[in-house]
Each structure stands twice: as C-alpha cells, then as structure tokens.
C-alpha cells in the first residue's frame, strides 16, 4: 500500500473558555490515501472546521499528524502552508480584492517565493491564464484585468479554487466553498472542482452541507458528530449509499 498522504492518530482539540475546557475534536483517527477525495458531512458544530484547523495547524491539537509520512505535529500553520491549500465559504477570503484576476493568479503561482510580482511575467502568461479561466465558462477569462472585488461570488470562488490548486498542494481543503452560491452556480463550481481534482490528481477533503454533493462527488465520505468520527464510507460503500442512510446522523 502506498504511503498515506495525511494521517491523524488520536488527534484531539481542547479549547478553554471561561475557566472551562471543552474537547471539540475527540481521538480522531483518519488515514487519507493519495488522491482520496473525501466529502465531510456533519451537523452544525460537529467539528468539521475544527478538523480542518487541526490539519492546517490553525488550532493546536494533541496526537500525531503526518503529511506523506513526515511528522508535522510540531509545525505551525505557516510552516504547514506549503503542503495545504484551503478554499473558504466566503468569496472574499481567498483573493486580494484590489488586485486583478491575473495578478491574483500569478501571485498564487509564486506563493511562498520571495520574488515580487513582475508585469513582464504576467504578460508572458496571459494566454495561459485566459485558457485556465475560460474552462469555468463564467466569463472570468474576460475579466483578467478587473479587480477581484468587482467579480460575482461564483466568479470569485472559481478564482479562489484556481488559485488554491496552482501549486498542486499535497492537500486541498474545501471548507463549504460552494455554500454561499445559488444552486446553479454551486453545481457549476462543484463539477469543475471535481474535474480539477481528477486532472491534477489532488488529495482533497470537502466539507459540505449539501448531502447530494457529498454523495455524488469523491471516493469516500465521512460523517462527524459531536467532535467524533461517526462514519467512514469507502468507495464501494459510498457507491451504494443513499440519502436515507445518512439521515440518522442528522436527527
Ligand atoms: N477556537 C474555538 N474556541 C472555542 N470553541 C470553538 C473554537 N472553534 C470551534 N469551537 C466550537 O467547537 C464546536 C465545533 O465547531 P466547528 O466550527 O468545528 O463545527 P462545524 O462542524 O464546522 O460547524 P458548521 O457546520 O456550523 O460550520 C462548536 O461548538 C464551536 O463553537
């Protein structure tokens, strides 16, 4: 068996508030194989974002986390950032609003490097940027020079996704990235997300409240409840899984 892309062993997160401690992620054990696309379901407050924060190093966790066999438990969020890209629910989170679409994309291609953005590099890549953005079919390719704050939510989320995958991250975290979009735009972005993950052979986790998306996409589905892993369906099990089978987790 190939080495796990990511593994969590006995990972727990405890937060302290008003002299009380609360464990919001409990003894999580999860082995993510390379190219797994795992959809993550759970009620509000189940611990889904906490799981992402523990993996990304935004919340301190006990237990052990490895990326491609390397123990990263002691690394902070900045040190883990070279392995991870995350797309959030809020279209404003992933892009620099005053900068143009093209500038945002070129910056994403050089994320983590010391060099600054150069106009010449941007011009040299214009054709490629046009081609990459055209695949969304939402007019983004016509807006390469527009500030991203003028884009629609759907255009901005598709740009955030494209930026997140520019450097082929070892792990892509999708944190309800379609939740703020209308059903049609959400469906478009989901189809494209799936295409990009497959084409780039990415390993991804996707939190969603849209049960149909959780069932339709990915090769594995997990359910969190009250900070614990309640269910973990592999590819074969997921194929036969129905909405009704999942309802017991949401009563
Ligand atoms: N930094 C924190 N400090 C204190 N409590 C926190 C912190 N982060 C999360 N929590 C609490 O932990 C629980 C799990 O939160 P989390 O955001 O992970 O849930 P979620 O499954 O992502 O929910 P939602 O679907 O609403 O986004 C909640 O009760 C939340 O209030």
How would you portray this structure in words?
It is built from ten helices and ten strands. It has helices at residues 48-56, 77-80, 101-109, 119-124, 126-134, 153-165, 183-199, 211-216, 235-240, 243-247, and strands at residues 6-17, 20-32, 37-41, 62-67, 70-71, 84-87, 171-175, 204-207, 220-225, 228-233. The strands form two sheets. The protein has a six-stranded mixed β-sheet with strand order 6-7-8-3-9-10, sandwiched between helices. Strands 2-1-4-5 form a four-stranded antiparallel β-sheet, with helices on one face. By secondary structure, the protein is of the alpha/beta class. It has a domain at 6-83 and 169-250: 3-Layer(aba) Sandwich (Rossmann fold), CATH 3.40.50. Helix 3 runs parallel beside helix 6 and helix 6 (153-165) packs parallel to helix 7 (183-199). The longest helix has 17 residues, at 183-199. The structure holds adenosine-5'-triphosphate (ATP). Adenosine-5'-triphosphate is lined by residues 15, 17, 24, 42, 44-50. Residues 6-251 form the ABC transporter domain. Its main location: membrane. This is ABC-type uncharacterized transport system, ATPase component. Pfam families: ABC_tran. It is found in: Cell membrane.
